[in-house]
Amino acid sequence: MDLGIAGRRALVCASSKGLGRGCAEALAAEGVEVTILARSRDALERTAEEIRAKTGAKIIAVACDITTPEGRTAALAACPEPDILVNNAGGPSPGDFRDWEREDWIAALDSNMLTPIELIRQTIDSMVARGFGRIVNITSSSVKAPIEVLGLSNGARSGLTGFVAGAARRFASHNVTINNLLPGAFDTDRIRKVNEAVAAKNQISIEEVRAQRQKSIPAGRYGQPDEFGAACAFLCSAHAGYITGQNWLVDGGAYPGTF
C-alpha cells in the first residue's frame, strides 16, 4: 500500500535506536524526509547513515536534548514545519515509589508529558494551515495496564494521554490527527532494563524474567521495532485521517481487556 506521504517532512524524537528508529526507518521507506533526534551524536550519525543507505531517503540528524528549550529550538530549526511529529522519549527508571523524590517526578513529567505537549504546541498550527498533520505519541501499554515498577512512567504517560484525549478532536476537521501508540514488550534496551529491575526485585535471573514475560504474551514473543514502525507509519499516512484521539495497543495481545 502506498501510504501517500512521500515528500512529507517528519520529526522523530529519540530515534537513534529502538522504537524511535523503527518509526524513522518506516517513514523514510515511504519517501518521507526524516529529521532524527537523540542526545548521542555518534549513535545518531551512525543511524542516519544506515537509514540513508537502506532507504535512499533524506535524513537529517540533530544531536540535542529535546526535553530542554535549547534542544527543541535546534530540532525545529532543522525541521521548522513538520508534517509528521513522532514524540518519543526514554522511559523513567523503574523502582519503588517510596524512593522517589519530587525531582524524580518532575523529570518524568518533563520528558514524557510536558515535552510532547510543547512540541505539539509549536507545530500544530502550521499543520492546520497546510491542511495535513499527523502526530503520534509513543507512550506505553502501562497506560492501559500499569506496571508496578514503572510508577513514574505510568503517571507521566497517563497525563499525556489525558491531554491528547481533550486536544485531538479540536483539529480533526483540518486533517490533523493526534494519536498515541502504546507498545508492550519489544526487544529493546528499555525492556532489558525493566527485566533487570524485576529480576533484582524477585531474586531470579534475567533469563527467567524474559521467559515468563514472553509466555504471558499471546504472540509468544517480544515485538520487533520494525513492526512498531510499520504501525506508526500507517497512523501517519494519508489513509489515517479518520483516526484521531486513539490509543493503539501494539502488545502481541498481552492486554486482556475488552476495551
TrEMBL record:
Q: Which SUPFAM superfamilies match?
A: NAD(P)-binding Rossmann-fold domains (SSF51735)
Report the InterPro entries cross-referenced here. Answer: NAD(P)-bd_dom_sf, SDR, SDR_fam
Q: Name one GO molecular function term.
A: 3-oxoacyl-[acyl-carrier-protein] reductase (NADPH) activity
Entry keyword set: Oxidoreductase
- Domain of life of the native organism: Bacteria
Q: What is its EC number?
A: 1.1.1.100
Q: Which Gene3D superfamilies does its entry note?
A: NAD(P)-binding Rossmann-like Domain (3.40.50.720)
Q: Which enzyme class, named as a word?
A: oxidoreductase
The answer to whether the entry has keyword Oxidoreductase is: yes
Q: Which family does it belong to?
A: Belongs to the short-chain dehydrogenases/reductases (SDR) family.
PANTHER family, per this entry?
3-OXOACYL-(ACYL-CARRIER-PROTEIN) REDUCTASE (PTHR42879), NADPH-DEPENDENT REDUCTASE BACG (PTHR42879:SF6)
What protein does this entry describe? 3-oxoacyl-[acyl-carrier-protein] reductase FabG
Please spell out the taxonomic lineage of the organism that makes this protein.
Bacteria, Pseudomonadati, Pseudomonadota, Betaproteobacteria, Burkholderiales
